[in-house]
Amino acid sequence: MRPLHEADPKVFELIKGEERREFDNLRMIASENYVSRAVLEATGSVLTNKYSEGYIGRRYYEGQQFIDAIEGLAIERAKKLFGADHANVQTYSGSPANLAVYMATMKPGDTVMGMALPDGGHLTHGWRVSATGQWFNAVQYGVDPESGLLDFNVIRELALKHRPKLLIAGATAYPRIIDFAAFRAIADEVGATLLVDMAHIAGLVAGKAHPSPIPYADVVSTTTHKTLRGPRGAMLMCTEAMAKDIDKAVFPGLQGGPHNHTTAGIAVALGEALTPAFQDYAHQIVKNAQALAKGLAGHGFRLISGGTDNHLILMDVTPRGMTGKAYSQALDKAGIECNYNTVPNDPRKPFDPSGIRLGTAGVTSRGMKESDMVKIADWFNQVVSIHDDEAALAKVAGEVREFCAAFPAPGISIK
Ligand SMILES: *Cc1c(COP(=O)(O)O)cnc(C)c1O
Known about the structure:
This protein is α/β, with parallel strands linked by helices. It folds into two domains: about 40-275, Aspartate Aminotransferase, domain 2 (3-Layer(aba) Sandwich); about 285-405, Aspartate Aminotransferase, domain 1. Helix content is about 45%, strand content about 15%. It has 16 helices and 15 strands. The protein has helices at about 5, 10-25, 35-45, 65-80, 95-105, 130-135, 150-160, 180-190, 200-205, 240-255, 260-275, 275-300, 325-335, 360-365, 370-385, 390-405; strands at about 25, 55, 60, 85-90, 110-115, 135-140, 165-170, 195, 220-225, 235-240, 300-305, 310-315, 335, 340, 355-360. The protein has a seven-stranded mixed β-sheet with strand order 4-10-9-8-7-5-6, sandwiched between helices. The chain has a four-stranded antiparallel β-sheet with strand order 11-12-15-14. Strand 8, helix 9 (about 200-205) and strand 9 form a beta-alpha-beta unit. Helix 12 packs parallel to helix 15 (about 370-385). The longest helix is centred in the C-terminal third of the chain and has 23 residues, at about 275-300. The two termini are about 30 Å apart. Bound molecules: pyridoxal-5'-phosphate. Pyridoxal-5'-phosphate (PLP) binds near residues 124, 200 and 223.
């Protein structure tokens, strides 16, 4: 019955260190966030002890009195929040969720069409190092190298030529609204199933700050831990017509027992997302991203597509004399976290590309507003000129720490 700090002080101290780090820094990695105390509690509960292979009322183990109710709550809330016909809340994470859609719709060797990783797509959209690129015939579309935007004439031509069975819309690094209706029209024309992967933008969709893909897609996949602000996990939502195939692909096709502690955390997060406060949060994320984009553009960074409609900014930092990697490492020393990222048509290699990717979900969860983004943009500017001066970077990190201390972080008890 010993608490963690007594039972395993080593792990305890490392967790405390991470908590402090998350409190002290400007966390601007576009896929990260701060979950609430309630989500943390549900995720760290005894539900991790329970096996429940199968679905509600059809389990392969006894003792499901509470698990069935918890999974039922998560499903009902997901359907209500997104207006979906069917929801599966058992997928372990975004990547296996996408693989389940492949399994439900294709045989190995069939043709899938998705967005290329260097242009903003995800590994699981058919990129060559992923199982999805190796076990399937993957055709990849990109963005227009000049505008940084999806070009639906090019995507349509490619689809007509290759006739994919599965067409995937969605991205990890695309700062603009995706035209789901245009993807639907192409899928219909070539007879493809349309998967929209809304992993990054699910919280914006839930909070009505971004159009919903639900009316257009046959299947929607999403992680639950990005803008949606739940535990690490994922969900699949689909039409009634696809429900059986999707459920069968998740279990027994790809997985064994669901992670019930995660399911409970998802149920809690979805409950939070159904509140008016969550809509305010979602809209503030976009306002913050746009304020930050304006500040950064004013400092001479080249923003891909010229700005943003969502939570995310992708920018080329080479016009400021930096590379993505050197700059993101300097920012980290200054207490500002982001990730280096390729930009469309990047002449540099993926492990040291031209750009960085930023997101405003985390800082918005801490209550920061547009005026705070102006200040943050100024730090981005300052770090360029001091990027190889360790002492100056440490001084900025101190200022950032002091600044962050004024904004409570959800789930973190440090004051
Ligand atoms: C993050 C992400 C995923 C994968 O999620 P994991 O939980 O890391 O496996 C899938 N698709 C997109 C578009 C993503 O951004």
